[in-house]
Amino acid sequence: MGYLLxxxxxEIKAAQVALESTMRKEFxxxxxxxxxxxxxxxxxxxxxxDDAHWYWSADHKDGATPRKLNWVGRYQTRYxxxxxxxxxxxxxNRVDRAGGFFVKDIDSGxxxxxxxxxxxxxxxxxxxxAFLTWLDEVPDEVVDASGHFKDGFIVMxxxxxGAAASLKRxxxxxxxxxxxxxxxxAGTPSFERKQQKFLAYYKEARGRRKGRRSAxxxxxxxxxxxxxxxxxxxxxxPVPKGQAIVKNALIDLGVGTENALSEIFEVKTxxxxxxxxxxIGQLMVHGSSSSCxxxxxxxxxxxxxxxxxxxTLKLQDIQVIRYDLKPRSVELLI
Length: 334
Prior knowledge:
Blueprint: E1 3-5, H1 9-26, E2 29-37, E3 40-49, E4 53-60, E5 67-74, E6 81-82, E7 85-86, E8 89-90, E9 100-105, E10 111-115, H2 128-135, E11 140-143, E12 149-157, H3 165-182, H4 189-207, H5 223-235, E13 244-246, E14 253-256, E15 261-267, H6 273-286, E16 293-299, H7 307-315, E17 318-325, E18 330-333
C-alpha cells in the first residue's frame, strides 16, 4: 500500500467535486448559519449537517495561499458554529501551507482526503507535535510528483457509502484533543517526556529515507520488472531435485513443489510500514514450513529498517534482498 499526492489541477478539482457531493449526501440537512473562529466570523453561509457534525466549503482565491476551504465541526443549535479543523486543499501542486490534500491509493486507485495533522485554534498547547503524540497514531506516507515525501492522516475517501464515517472519527479525535489541552495536561512533565520520545521516533523514521525517490521512475509500475529480474537470477542457480521455480497470484516467486515451498520471495516497491507488515504476513502464510527460506525484496532507498521490523525479520528468519531501479533495468544487490 502507498499513496501518490494529487497535484494536477483537474484531478484535484474532480476530487473536490466528489468530496462535496459525498458530504451533501451524508450531511443531508442544510441551513444558513454563522461560523466563528479566532479573529472573525463568516456570516450567513449555507452549511450541511447531520445533527451531530457540520460541513461548509467555499473558494478562497485571495491571499498568499489560494485554496478550497473545507471546514468541519461539531453541530450545535445555539450560538455560532465553531470550526474543529480546517481541511483546506490547494487548487494545484503541492502546497504544504494548506492542511488538507488529496491522494490516490496506488493499488486500488481510490482517492482520499488527507490532513497534515496540523491543528490550530488559538489555545496554548494546541499544535501538530502535541496532537501526533496525544493521538499516538503514525501518519501515512505520501510521495509527490518530484519524488519527495510528506505524511498525513487519511480523513475519508471522497466517494463511497459511509465515506464520512472516518471523517467524523477524525473530527471527534481533534475535538477531544483540544478539550484535553484545555485541562492543562499538555504541559505536564509526563506528557512532555512522551512528546520528546515521539519526536525522537518521528525524526528517526524520517531520517531513514534517503531523501526522495527518483521522479523519473515509477516504482509501482516496475514491480513486474523486479520479479522478472529476480526470476532470471534464481533460474541461474541450481534448484533442488523434484522442485521447480513457482510463480502465481499468491506469491511473487518461490521454489518448491505444488504442495510445499522451500524458498519464497516477496517483492515490495516501498519500505513504508504498511508494505513491510503485508510482506511479512505473506511470507509467513505462504512460506509457513519451518524449512522454507523466506526473502523480503525491497528498494535500496532507506539506510536502515525500523528496529522493531529488523527484530521481527531476525526472529522469523527472513532474509532481506535490496534492489536498485535503473531507467531500463533492475540491479539486485546480492
